[in-house]
Amino acid sequence: MKFSKATNYALHTMLFLASSKNSKPIGVQVLAEKQSVSPTYLSKILTKLVKEGMITSVSGANGGYSLSHGWESISFLDIIQAIEGKSSLFDCYDHGPECPIRKVMLSSEEKMEEELRRRTIADLV
Amino acid sequence: MKFSKATNYALHTMLFLASSKNSKPIGVQVLAEKQSVSPTYLSKILTKLVKEGMITSVSGANGGYSLSHGWESISFLDIIQAIEGKSSLFDCYDHGPECPIRKVMLSSEEKMEEELRRRTIADLV
DNA sequence: GCCGTTTTACTCGGATATATGCTGTCCGAGTTTACCGGG
DNA sequence: CCCGGTAAACTCGGACAGCATATATCCGAGTAAAACGGC
Q1: Measured between CB atoms, does B125 come within 8 Å of chain A?
Q2: For B3, which of A89, A94, A112 is closest by C-beta distance?
Q3: Confidence class of residue A21 from pLDDT cuts 50, 70 and 90?
Q4: Residue A108 has what pLDDT?
Q5: Which CATH class is domain B5-124?
Q6: Contacts of B112 in chain A (CB under 8 A)
Q7: Rounded CA gap, B12 and B35, in Å?
Q8: What SS3 state is found at A55?
Q9: Which of A55, A34, A45, A56 is nearest to A6 (CA)?
Q10: Closest Cα partner for B113 from B93, B83, B86, B73?
Q11: pLDDT tens digits, one per residue of B55-66
Q12: How do beta strands B55-58 and B64-67 pair?
């Protein structure tokens, strides 16, 4: 089990957008170049962030992506879940909600999420 | 990103072995049946636990798997890492060890591992 | 009843499908800006 | 100077290919206990 590269790209893109306080949108070409990833693939990833309202996209010439209003409160967990989905890391089949193993796994997972919820991109700028 | 089913099987097998205090080894057939998984596949998973010294296997008739001496101190993390490997959940390419995002991810991951290290199968019996 | 042989019940390991999800590409469509040429 | 049309610079979305890994199966080999059979 690994975090996907897509999550990595999303996090670094958010950090980059937050670092360049430019109000003008930044094209996906530029963002992709910084991370050595193809623009079309990055675009696909960023679309997920747009749908979650974390960033906004502007079509047409001089278009690109920029942070949404209220971006300062976006946590690592928000970004990760936008890419990876919100489902639990651990599936316990046929053992029901009372499965003691499941309980341990879920509580441990929750510890990580607490920390990821606490940390924001804005903290790093 | 998900924990693999193999990890689930490994954890439940450990719990089952710990619950049935029987000193006699238990055949993979029995263990597999409890979890609705094929015996040959489960065997492959359990081999990893054997290599890590958590359980021992006995060949031949009336053979099977049983807990190793000192099993009481085996943590969830031990079992999970035996199956999933010990590498970090988050890879940061080309950003070096000073990458601030990497630091946040690793520290969050560490929170989960702390909890998994604290919890043992023996606690659940 | 004893001992050697065979059968049976197991695990072990490698090789090999199959499935699933991640990564990445391609292309057509829509959108906005910049440019350009005619009046 | 203005205005309309065209080109250029973008994002968006779906379809699709390639690849890695997880999942699962198959089979031959080794191993230990039980069963058997001759003496």
Answers
A1: no
A2: A89
A3: confident
A4: 97
A5: mainly alpha
A6: 108-109, 111-112
A7: 8
A8: strand
A9: A45
A10: B86
A11: 999 999 999 999
A12: antiparallel
